[in-house]
Amino acid sequence: PATSVLDPQNRAHEVDNLYVVDASFFPSSAGLNPSLTVAANARRVAAHVNQAHFAA
Fold first, then answer.
1. Residue 23 is part of which domain span?
2. In whole angstroms, what is the distance from residue 6 CA to residue 10 CA?
3. What is the model's pLDDT at position 30?
4. pTM of the model
5. Cα–Cα distance between 41 and 37 in angstroms, integer?
């Protein structure tokens, strides 16, 4: 929390159940179009949310 707003699963440290899955999770601007990276990260976070909150 001292050096970042998000944990490794893109969950905000200060707000419960807030996950960031758009390009704002980048610590700085990307040099190229980040759309595929953003989409891949969103899938990764969605899999984590599904497992953490909806798995039986």
1. 1-56
2. 5
3. 80
4. 0.82
5. 6
